Amino acid sequence: GQQLNQSPQSMFIQEGEDVSMNCTSSSIFNTWLWYKQDPGEGPVLLIALYKAGELTSNGRLTAQFGITRKDSFLNISASIPSDVGIYFCAGPPPGRDDKIIFGKGTRLHILP
Amino acid sequence: GAVVSQHPSWVICKSGTSVKIECRSLDFQATTMFWYRQFPKQSLMLMATSNEGSKATYEQGVEKDKFLINHASLTLSTLTVTSAHPEDSSFYICSASYGNQPQHFGDGTRLSIL
After folding, report:
1. Chain A (23-62) residues lying within 8 Å, Cβ to Cβ, of chain B
2. Spatial contact of A35 and A87, defined as CB atoms under 8 Å apart
3. What is the pLDDT of residues A23-46, one digit of tens each?
4. Per-residue model confidence (pLDDT) at position A98
5. Does residue A67 come out as left (phi exceeding 0), alpha (psi in the -120 to 50 range) or beta?
6. Is A97 on the interface with B (CB under 8 A)?
7. Which residues are CB-neighbours of B82 under 8 A, at least 6 positions away?
8. How many helices (H) and strands (E) does chain B have?
9. Contact: A42, B46; criterion CB under 8 Å
10. pLDDT digits (tens, 9 = 90+) for B9-45
11. Strands B19-25 and B32-38, bridge-based pairing
């Protein structure tokens, strides 16, 4: 079935560092969504992207909708401890606007 | 805005019992609600999609008689896990959306079957 591939699977960084992660697909997506999930909680929507090339920021987070429509990236600047969690990309698979599928997530760890 | 409440947050029960989980959109009317299951260290897997007043659409491999979904109003959907067994233990998460807006998620229900 359709898959979203997230990279890297996990990251270990120092507080204050910038973070970059991406999400790719073999098919074209018309919408890219980035969610963050804290342990034991549901995902929270961070950024939604609807147009190829679109660059959108939400505080220290910036996400871009790739020109090819087959990828998206999420950057976090000046990471802080509360950034720890799992970041998921998601989007409606081709021909199915009635649901979204999720990538496997990027786990962000911040070293003390 | 866009708050989705899920209840209970945690339930432990004996094998063979049925468990009901509620999902409510608190500040908007949800035209569609979704139910997901998430196993430890894995991604969210869609189980079913429900629209108010109509039967739920289940994903391939999800037993509709095992996971009963009711979407009685624009703000409430329930998932009942019937005759639950240990392999049904998981984190169940609902989400709700209005029209083509992105889904907003509840905080999940951790189900443990003994």
Report:
1. 33, 35, 40-45, 48
2. yes
3. 999 999 999 999 999 999 999 999
4. 85
5. alpha
6. yes
7. B18, B65, B66, B67, B68
8. 0, 11
9. no
10. 999 999 999 999 999 999 889 989 999 999 998 999 9
11. unpaired
Percentage of chain A lying above the pLDDT 90 cut: 88
Return mean pLDDT, chain A: 94
pLDDT tens figures, B54-88: 889 999 999 999 999 998 888 999 999 999 999 99
Which chain B residue lies closest to A106 (C-alpha atoms)? B43
Helix (H, G, I), strand (E, B) or coil at A74: strand
Residues 6+ apart with CB under 8 A from B75: B24, B25, B26, B29, B30
pLDDT for the residue A1: 60
A vs B: CB pairs below 8 A: 42
* Cβ neighbourhood burial of A40 (10 Å; 0-12, 13-18, 19+): exposed
Q: Is A103 on the interface with B (CB under 8 A)?
A: yes
Give me the residue from A41, A45, A104 closest to B104, CB to CB: A45
Smallest Cα distance from B95 to chain A, Å: 9
Q: Which of A99, A107, A109 would you mutate first to test chain B, the one with the most B CBs within 10 A?
A: A99
Beta carbons of A12 and A107 less than 8 angstroms apart: no
* Chain A residues close to B46, C-beta within 8 Å: 99-101
